[in-house]
TrEMBL record:
It comes from Anolis carolinensis. One of its GO terms (molecular function) is trace-amine receptor activity. InterPro entries: GPCR_2-like_7TM, GPCR_Rhodpsn, GPCR_Rhodpsn_7TM, TAAR, TAAR_fam. GO terms for cellular component: plasma membrane. This is Trace amine associated receptor 5. The gene is TAAR5. It is found in: Cell membrane.
Length: 354
């Protein structure tokens, strides 16, 4: 009898010991909880460090864009208003979304509740879509500027820029609100929805329809940008050849060289912009549609890498569209040296060569 009791107590103690590591692996100590990703401290610290540096780069770079365009009056142009709105979307993404996304990526758990999960998903989708729409509108602006330079000042006015900005924010707000906060959509499409894989994952709209709808929403601006930038590249090369022929006849090789370099630089900058956009967004977009066809087989680690690649595009925007301009370098210098606190600096002509 005593032997049986000892055997029973031993088995119970071994069972409780076996449950301890299992509970430690769960996000929450409840049934149906997600499992945590247990990385060694060094790897975990490295991931947090990379995420933190990426967020800082995104926030500081876009903050400099916002301050510069807002402060200096000479930068109050239709094109720069688009850049300002784009930088604001990327800045808000870095401030409100990415810190929580970093914790979820490292811990593979969502600790902030269901309501904030829905809000976080709303802001994430909103700012990413807004950024993509603005990149598309900037490509339209550049297309008008290079392909139709004489009519460009009358075509692309402040009013047109404000319309683009309103559409760039309004459409993502409506689109995201309908799918995240509308009960009608959720009830009418119930047969498309799949159950949440576990508690603590914060994977809203985990269904096949979401992948099919997101694909054209993200991919269509991509096709527009590629088409416009290809035409811009062709027109820029044609203009460079025309300038070369004109300067050869007038015998002004220095002017010819300067003009050719400017055209090549503009075409190269546009090519880099398209390349980085495709590099950042196409892997995530393609994985979304393929994953929906194959019942979501993408490992969480791979999905996190792809979504952070997409986030990285928002950190690249200031480098691609703004940091290559000499006027922005002058503006950053004035901001960092705190000369913007002087009332006279707001009227400085940043376009004038030093």
């Amino acid at each position: 009898r005593k032997v049986e009791m000892k055997s029973s107590n031993w088995s119970q103690s071994m069972s409780s010991v076996a449950e301890v590591p299992t509970l430690d692996l769960l996000c929450f100590k409840i049934n149906g909880s997600c499992y945590r990703s247990l990385y060694p401290f060094g790897i975990q610290f490295a991931i947090y460090l990379v995420c933190t540096l990426g967020v800082l780069l995104m926030v500081l770079g876009n903050l400099l864009v916002v301050i510069s365009i807002f402060h200096f009056k000479v930068l109050h142009t239709p094109t720069n208003f688009l850049l300002l709105s784009l930088a604001l979307a990327d800045l808000l993404l870095g401030l409100t979304v990415l810190p929580f996304s970093a914790i979820r990526s490292v811990e593979s758990c969502w600790y902030f509740g269901d309501d904030f999960c829905r809000l976080h998903t709303f802001l994430d989708t909103l700012f990413c879509l807004t950024s993509i729409f603005h990149l598309c509108f900037i490509s339209i602006d550049r297309h008008c500027a290079i392909c139709d330079p004489l009519l460009y000042p009358t075509k692309f006015t402040v009013r047109v820029a404000c319309t683009y900005i309103a559409v760039g924010w309004g459409v993502p707000v409506v689109y995201t609100s309908v799918f995240l906060y509308s009960k009608i959509i959720e009830e009418s499409l119930d047969h498309f929805l799949q159950d949440m894989p576990c508690i603590g994952s914060c994977q809203l709209l985990f269904n096949k329809l979401w992948g099919w709808i997101n694909f054209p929403v993200f991919f269509l601006p991509c096709l527009i940008m590629i088409g416009l930038y290809v035409k811009i590249f062709i027109v820029a090369n044609k203009q460079a050849k025309q300038i070369s022929n004109m300067t050869r006849n007038t015998g002004n090789p220095q002017h010819q060289l300067g003009a050719t370099k400017r055209e090549k630089k503009a075409a190269k900058t546009l090519g880099i912009a398209v390349g980085i956009y495709l590099l950042c967004w196409l892997p995530f977009t393609i994985d979304t549609i393929v994953d929906s066809l194959l019942d979501f087989i993408t490992p969480p680690v791979v999905f996190d890498v792809l979504i952070w690649f997409a986030y990285f595009n928002s950190a690249c925007n200031p480098l691609i569209y703004v940091f290559s301009y000499h006027w922005f370098r002058r503006a950053v210098k004035l901001v960092l040296t705190r000369q913007i606190f002087s009332a006279q600096t707001c009227t400085i002509d940043l376009y004038q060569e030093e």
